[in-house]
Sequence to fold (345 residues):
Amino acid sequence: MNKSALIFGVTGQDGSYLSRLLLKKGYVVHGVIRRSSSINTKRIDDIYQEPFTKKKYFILHYGDVTDGSSVFDLIKKIKPKEIYNLAAQSHVAVSFQVPEYTSNADALGSLRILDSIVKINPKIKYYQAGSSEMYGKVQSFPQTEKTPFYPRSPYAVSKVYAHWITINYRESYNLFACNGILFNHESPLRGETFVTKKIVKALCKIKQKKQRRLYLGNIYSKRDWGHAEDYVVAMWKILQYKKPDDWVICTGKQYSVKEFINLVAKKINLDISWKGKGLKEKAFSKDNKIIIEIKKRYFRPSEVDNLKGNSSKAKKILKWKPVKDLNNLIQDMVTYELKKLSNEK
Ligand code: NAP
Ligand code: GDD
Fold:
C-alpha cells in the first residue's frame, strides 16, 4: 500500500519540491489548489496527471485554508497518513498590506486543519511550516528551538499563532503535530518578488542588456539562506521521526542582501561598484551606468535585521544537513534564469 500525503500549498515553491520528493518515495500525493482567474500551476505542470489517468499518484483538489468546510471535507475524503501545511500568504512585506487575510490564512488556516484532524482521525501526522521570521527582533544568537519569539510583521505574528496552536493540539489531543522552524530557503522556483529571485533575475537581464535597473529596499538585512530542495527533505524527516517535536532548519551561515548581490554579480561576470549611503546608495556598471537604486517603497514598517540559525538538534537527531551551500544555490538560480532568457530569444 502506498503512503498518502496531502499538501496544502502544493503550487508554491516548497509544495513543488515536496511533491517530487514524496512521489520519488512512492507516496500518492494529494495537493490542494485554489481557483484563480489564470492558471497558476506552472511549478507542478510537469508532474500533473490527467484526471482520466488510470493509476493516479498525483491528484489535485480545489480548496482553501480560509474555508473550513473545504479543509474538513478534503481531509475526510482523502484520509491521508500525513498532512503538510505549506499554505500561506508568505510575503512579509505584503502582510502589512493585507494583515487580516494573512492572519486568516496563516494563523487560522493551521487551526482549521488541526481541528479537522482531531475530528476525522487523530492519527494523521501534521507538519506546520513555521518560519525564522518568528524570531523577528532576535533575542539571542544564533537562533535555536529555545530562542523566544519576537515577531515583527502580521505574517510573523500569524506564524507564531500557528506554531503554538500546533503545540497546543499536540499536547491536548495527543496529535503527531510538528513545527518546522525553517530559515529562508530559495531555489529557481522561488516567487518572483522575494529578494533573491528578484536580484538573480534582474542582474541576469542587466548583464544581457534586457533591463536597465533594479530597485531594492534594505540591502543591509542579513539572512541564513538555504536551498528549498534540501529543506523539503527536512519536512519529510520531521514526520518520520518516532515522536512529534519542533525543529530548526537552517544552514548556520549568514549573508547580507548586499553580499548576495555581489556574489550573483561575480557569478555572471557583471562588474559592479557601489557609491553613496542610505537611500542614495547606488551600484554602477563598468561603463558607469546606474544599475541598482534604493527605494523607500521597498522598506518594511518594521524590519527583521539579522537571522542566523543553529540546527544542531536536527543534525544530531534527524541526521539532516543541507547539501547545497549558497554558491550552489546561486549557481542553480543563475543557470535557470539564463536558460529562460535564452529560450525567450
Ligand atoms: P509560496 O511559494 O508563497 O507558496 C505558498 C503556497 O500557499 C502556494 O501554493 C499558495 O497558493 C498557497 N496558498 C496561499 N494562500 C492559500 C490559501 N488561503 N489556501 C490554500 N493555499 C494557499 O511559499 P513557499 O516559499 O513555498 O513556502 C511554503 C510555506 O513555508 C509557507 O507557509 C511559508 O510561509 C513557509 N516558509 C517559507 C520559507 C521560505 O524561505 N521559503 C521559510 C519559512 C517558512 P497559490 O499558488 O494559489 O497562491
Ligand atoms: N522582497 C524584497 N524585495 N525584499 C527586499 C527588497 C526587495 O526589493 N530589498 C531588500 N529586501 C530585504 C527585505 O527587507 C528583507 O530584509 C530581506 O531582503 C529578505 O526579504 P524576502 O526575500 O522578502 O524574505 P523574508 O526574509 O522577508 O521572508 C522570507 O523568509 C521567511 C523565513 O525567514 C519568506 O519566504 C517568508 O515566507 C519566510 O517565512
